[in-house]
Write a structure and sequence with these properties.
By secondary structure, the protein is α/β, with parallel strands linked by helices. It is 45% helix and 13% strand. Among the domains are: 15-63; 98-265, no CATH class. The strands form 2 sheets. A 4-stranded mixed beta sheet has the order 1-8-7-6. A 4-stranded mixed beta sheet has the order 2-3-4-5.
């Protein structure tokens, strides 16, 4: 199967436009149904009027929530957080580990594995299954002792997660003293991809020849074949000769290497779980994080993550309630 052409500029019939139209139709239909079942005077209350006014703005507001939280984080310093009690049990969720064992054991380090649609399809389906079982949108990438993930495979995984954002944030861990799960840092797939392309020779040039259209259903073998051919092209463009363990382009990724590649974009914030409630300093650190999900740790080993947006919302509601 040949490669699909790269996407052209957005037109009036693009997927994003259709999604917004579908959203508006669904939202308005829901309100019409509610109008038919709710007492008429109640429906004309201020709350309903605000809801109607916000419907067209929601697609515009949601992508800007993260930026808004970063902008208000300095003001959290002035709140009396000592009287706010946030229970970690209501704010934490379990991360999911990116599958790298069993039939998918070759995904991290075999330069031929992601060249087949079967491996890509099974990887994506496994991630979706883990999400359905209750895992959060955070995937753990275990670097082990620095001889598990090749940079080529890790980079391409980030590309796949940009196409199918079943996981929106990556938490990297490593082995220390024979024990696994020690936090290295956090990043988004987009941050990882961009920094590899800008900081590692050959990736930017090679990426420009990869045809990976948005909207591919990577769980479908036929569509996954498009991605598989793109990975094969990437390896051919980068690996000369292929497979050297210490090669800066295709070799293994250590924690020091990933810190060098990501620089300041690698989030190192974490909450060391000592008590059931967050301290004021921990609340400030979480709200000021550049990444939505902040890892929780025990003795520096990852145990879960806290949703920054949920913490910020609770802080804001407490501030409003106190006037």
């Amino acid at each position: 199967m040949g490669l699909l052409p790269p996407p052209t500029s957005r037109g009036p019939g693009s997927g994003a436009d259709r999604a917004i139209v579908a959203y508006l139709v669904l939202a308005l239909t829901t309100l019409i149904v509610l109008r038919a079942t709710v007492e008429s005077l109640a429906f004309l209350s201020v709350g309903w009027m605000l809801a109607l006014a916000l419907i067209p703005l929601t697609p515009w507001l949601l992508p800007r929530l993260g930026e808004f939280l970063r902008e208000i984080s300095p003001y959290v310093q002035s709140l009396k957080l000592g009287i706010i009690e946030l229970d970690l049990r209501t704010l934490t969720r379990e991360p999911i580990t990116v599958p790298s064992s069993g039939v998918l054991a070759a995904v991290p380090n075999d330069l031929a594995a992601l060249s087949t649609s079967t491996f890509i399809s099974e990887l994506v389906k496994s991630l979706h299954q883990l999400r359905r079982e209750g895992g959060g949108p955070v995937g753990i990438i275990d670097l082990k002792d620095g001889h598990k993930w090749r940079l080529t495979n890790l980079y391409f995984l980030a590309r796949l997660l940009e196409i199918d954002p079943v996981v929106g944030q990556l938490v990297l861990t490593e082995i220390r003293g024979g024990m696994d799960g020690y936090l290295v840092g956090s990043c988004t797939p987009n941050e990882l991809r961009q920094h590899v392309e800008l900081g590692v020779p050959g990736y930017l040039e090679a990426s420009q020849s990869l045809h990976l259209p948005a909207g591919l259903d990577l769980s479908d073998l036929t569509q996954a074949d498009v991605a598989a051919q793109a990975f094969a092209s990437l390896v051919q463009a980068l690996a000369k000769p292929p497979g050297l363990d210490d090669d800066l382009v295709t070799g293994y990724v250590t924690s020091d290497r990933i810190r060098t590649i990501l620089g300041g974009s690698l989030g190192v914030e974490a909450v060391e779980v000592i008590q059931a409630t967050l301290t004021p300093d921990e609340i400030r650190a979480i709200v000021g994080s550049n990444h939505r999900f902040v890892p929780t740790t025990t003795n520096a080993r990852v145990t879960g993550f806290v949703d920054r947006d949920a913490v910020a919302l609770t802080v804001a509601r407490n501030a409003i309630a106190r006037g």
